[in-house]
């Protein structure tokens, strides 16, 4: 008991007397745990905000009936009338029909209101007392009374500079030919409104005219009479609609609680994926931090050899010594986790501020027990595991041996065993990467993932042995310009290969991920550029804003451009085949082959009005051939038999299945018809591109949503989306690189303390301060370049076969980002110098006599 108390005091006083060492060690824990805390805090805060919104969805609704598929037109009118006629028998108190759909609304300047990805929808205005739950509150003005009047949610009106009395335009997401001129007569408050949400309301009859063909109703809400529970009414309505199997295929019959739960589940799934992404990067940071903490405690143990030896000499057992080191680790872990929690909350607050500006809801940051527990727990576990091996080494130091002048780390000599294991794993990794890279699909990708894990472990084990020849060769290059200083830096860098390799691994892992992601991104952009260059004949491509959906009337307007020779719009149809949803593309208004290159294998690709063509993989998978009839079922239950008239090579533009105009008309109800892919425009021979662009801008201006791009602009637009995603990933990876820099600083700073006597001797024999600083700069640069080069090689070894496996999903070929790799290597050298600035200045300030005496 007494010795345990003594050891605890030793641990706390050791930390207190080495404040700089404590700060550096704690900070490496803080950065990793902060991302764990940020992930938990951010996702739980957004989830709670969405839950608060969804708690207001379907309020007061006992039962809601909708189509089973979002693109289906809704519930047939005859079924709704059947329910209305059976209200008393079923126990329905009130039945309300809802009509609505996507719209685009112009702001005060005549441009589309940008929603930031939030919905922009129209619905019917239901007067107070006539609806169910009355979630809409009229806060200014009056209800719409004619087809050219609307109400709009106050948040959207304020953002768009609109008010009661403003005139604006509305574009419907259906086949209406022209934009609608409307006057805002009222402002509403909607509990479901988020930062970017736009919700307008027409009067009941106008909404029904615009969003229904008279045969279907989008949403039907009901309340139950007293004495009938929601679940009882749901079961009765389900039975009244018809055969159970048919009802389940065509409709959703849910209680209000189920509607709210389903919407919460959808956002929860998205947030779970987002949380996993953040946690993955936090894991990377923690993994990198583990090596730094391990390095730190290894050096601490080496520097405290005498202290630990004295403790052993006065009666401390091996367990007491190891517990002393682990106690320090525990205190560091608790402190790092606590500070990491605070930093994580700050990171989460910044993320919430950004997402709120983009339309996501937020009710203020919420730091729950789960965030607190995860940050502190992860900080303690990571630190304790990192310090475990150094603690064991400390306990095994014999007192007499530890009393020597040397502070060489125990076990730093032999590398043979771990290098041999690393070499074996490296061979297995290469085999897995090669085999996986020769295939396509999920199976080969999994083999590549196994190879990647083996390669990383192999590098961890073999890196110390690799560092000696590499750093030696690099030192040889710098020997001539830097002379003795260069040789001294090389000697210091290879003196302890374990330490050098562990320090460099932080950069290795970070830059490996940078190269893998860079290779994926470059290959995706290369595939897109190739597809556009080889596959697009059109002069201009018209796409839509706010989600990309465009009314069919927009394509009709484009055809009015005087110098537009061919205009082909592409619409999407969804049908069921053997009970599964099947997506198909319908080229409308012209031949797809006039604006795009689609290579036929057999038959035709310009499908007739009643035909269907498929790509080779689809034909092989389904066993289809020319002349086969395919029985499709629309989302409304109508059977449509379509003959296969052509088979073509895989095409990004055509997609896997093409159908004719008549097939599209039979499968898609009029209120669901819209263009969701680009409109391709080819000009007349000899027409000037600027002239055609000007004409297209004139005819599409009233529609608010048209973006007119030539082929280069179209490629750049798609590539910029990939670039934005990659920038986000690189920003997250920056965490590991920051930790890597701190790791080099930490290692060098402790190394300077460890070599204080040696530096003092060098200063005593005439070494200038500038030469001391230069030697530290070079030592750091050697380690950083070694880690970066190892990361680049490892990244290419993993990235290239990974891209090859993705060919199954359309990735055309490997594009290696050489400029990125070259930049990372140059950056690594800069990182080495920057990381060494403070340790080098500290070393240069060493006073010769004091250092010799203290040593």
From TrEMBL:
All copies of domain MacB-like periplasmic core, residue ranges: 23-238, 500-698
Source species, domain of life: Bacteria
Record keywords, A-Z: Cell membrane, Membrane, Transmembrane, Transmembrane helix
Transmembrane segments: 273-297, 329-355, 367-389, 420-439, 445-466, 500-520, 729-753, 782-803, 815-838
Its membrane topology: Multi-pass membrane protein
GO cellular component, one term: plasma membrane
Pfam families according to UniProt: FtsX, MacB_PCD
Gene Ontology molecular function: transmembrane transporter activity
Ranges where the ABC3 transporter permease C-terminal domain occurs: 280-399, 732-846
InterPro entries reported in the protein's UniProt record: ABC3_permease_C, MacB_PCD, Macrolide_Exporter_MacB
Signal peptide: none
Localization per record: Cell membrane
Coiled coil: none
Record-stated family: Belongs to the ABC-4 integral membrane protein family.
PANTHER family on file: ABC TRANSPORTER PERMEASE YTRF, MEMBRANE COMPONENT OF TRANSPORTER-RELATED
UniProt-recorded name of the protein: Putative ABC transporter permease protein
């Amino acid at each position: 008991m007494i010795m345990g108390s003594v050891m605890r005091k030793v641990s706390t006083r050791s930390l207190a007397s080495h404040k700089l060492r404590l700060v550096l060690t704690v900070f490496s824990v803080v950065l990793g745990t902060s991302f764990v805390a940020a992930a938990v805090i951010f996702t739980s805060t957004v989830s709670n905000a969405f839950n608060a919104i969804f708690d207001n969805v379907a309020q007061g609704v006992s039962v809601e009936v909708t189509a089973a598929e979002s693109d289906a037109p809704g519930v047939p009118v005859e079924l709704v009338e059947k329910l209305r006629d059976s209200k008393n028998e079923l126990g329905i108190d009130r039945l309300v029909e809802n009509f609505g759909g996507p719209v685009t609304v112009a702001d005060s300047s005549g441009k589309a209101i940008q929603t930031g990805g939030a919905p922009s929808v129209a619905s019917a205005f239901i007067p107070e007392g006539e609806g169910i739950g009355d979630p809409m509150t009229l806060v200014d003005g009056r209800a719409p009374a004619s087809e050219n009047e609307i109400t709009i949610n106050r948040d959207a009106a304020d953002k768009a500079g609109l008010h009661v009395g403003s005139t604006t335009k509305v574009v419907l997401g259906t086949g209406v030919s022209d934009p609608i001129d409307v006057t805002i007569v009222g402002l509403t408050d909607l509990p479901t409104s988020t930062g970017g949400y736009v919700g307008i309301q027409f009067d009941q009859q106008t909404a029904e005219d615009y969003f229904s063909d008279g045969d279907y109703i989008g949403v039907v809400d009901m309340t139950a009479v007293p004495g009938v529970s929601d679940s009882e009414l749901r079961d009765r309505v389900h039975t009244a609609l018809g055969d159970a199997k048919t009802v389940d295929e065509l409709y959703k019959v849910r209680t209000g609680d189920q509607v709210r739960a389903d919407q919460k589940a959808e956002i929860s799934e998205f947030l779970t994926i987002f949380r996993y992404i953040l946690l993955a990067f936090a894991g990377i940071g923690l993994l990198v931090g583990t090596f730094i903490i391990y390095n730190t405690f290894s050096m601490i143990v080496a520097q405290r050899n005498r202290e630990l030896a004295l403790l052993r000499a006065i009666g401390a057992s091996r367990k007491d010594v190891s517990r002393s080191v682990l106690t320090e680790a525990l205190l560091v872990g608790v402190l790092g986790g606590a500070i990491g929690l605070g930093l994580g909350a700050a990171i989460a607050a910044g993320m919430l501020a950004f997402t709120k500006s983009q339309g996501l809801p937020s009710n203020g940051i919420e730091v729950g027990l789960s965030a607190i527990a995860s940050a502190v727990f992860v900080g303690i576990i990571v630190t304790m595991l990192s310090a475990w091996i150094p603690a064991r080494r400390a306990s095994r130091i014999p007192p007499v041996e530890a009393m020597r002048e040397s502070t060489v780390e125990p076990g730093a000599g032999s590398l043979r065993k771990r290098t041999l294991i690393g070499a074996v794993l490296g061979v297995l990794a290469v085999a897995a990467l090669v085999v996986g890279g020769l295939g396509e699909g999920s199976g080969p990708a999994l083999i590549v993932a196994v190879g990647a894990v083996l390669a990383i472990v192999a590098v961890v084990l073999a890196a110390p042995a690799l560092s000696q020849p590499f750093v030696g060769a690099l030192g040889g290059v710098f020997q001539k310009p830097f002379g003795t200083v260069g040789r001294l830096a090389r000697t210091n860098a290879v003196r302890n290969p374990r330490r050098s390799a562990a320090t460099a691994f932080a950069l290795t892992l970070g830059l490996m991920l940078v190269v893998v992601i860079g290779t994926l991104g470059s290959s995706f952009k290369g595939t897109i550029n190739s597809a556009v260059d080889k596959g697009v004949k059109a002069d201009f491509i018209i796409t839509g804003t706010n989600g990309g959906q465009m009314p069919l009337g927009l394509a009709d307007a484009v055809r009015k451009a005087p110098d537009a020779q061919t205009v082909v719009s592409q619409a999407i149809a969804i049908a069921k085949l053997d009970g599964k949803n099947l997506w198909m593309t319908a080229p409308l208004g012209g031949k797809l082959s006039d604006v795009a290159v689609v290579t036929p294998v057999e038959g035709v690709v310009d499908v007739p009005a009643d035909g269907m063509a498929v790509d080779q993989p689809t034909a092989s998978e389904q066993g289809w051939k020319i002349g086969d009839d395919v029985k499709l079922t629309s989302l409304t239950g109508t059977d449509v038999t379509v003959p296969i008239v052509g088979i073509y090579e895989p095409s990004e533009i055509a997609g896997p299945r093409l159908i004719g105009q008549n097939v599209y008309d039979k499968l898609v109800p009029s209120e669901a018809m819209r263009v969701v892919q680009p409109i391709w425009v080819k000009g007349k021979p000899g027409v000037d591109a600027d002239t055609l662009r000007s004409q297209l801008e004139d005819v599409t201006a009233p529609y608010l949503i048209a973006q007119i791009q030539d082929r280069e602009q179209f490629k750049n637009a798609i590539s910029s989306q990939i670039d934005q995603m990659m920038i986000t990933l690189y920003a997250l990876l920056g965490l590991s690189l920051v930790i890597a820099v701190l790791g080099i600083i930490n290692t060098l700073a402790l190394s300077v303390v460890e070599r204080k006597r040696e530096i003092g001797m060098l200063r005593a024999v005439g070494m200038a301060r500038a030469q001391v600083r230069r030697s530290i700069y070079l030592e750091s640069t050697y380690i950083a370049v070694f880690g970066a080069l190892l990361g680049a090689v490892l990244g290419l070894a993993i990235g290239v076969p990974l891209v090859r496996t993705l060919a199954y999903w359309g990735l055309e070929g490997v594009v290696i980002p050489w400029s990125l790799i070259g930049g990372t290597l140059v950056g690594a050298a800069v990182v080495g110098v920057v990381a060494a600035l403070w340790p080098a200045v500290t070393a240069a300030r060493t006073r010769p006599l004091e250092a010799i005496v203290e040593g």
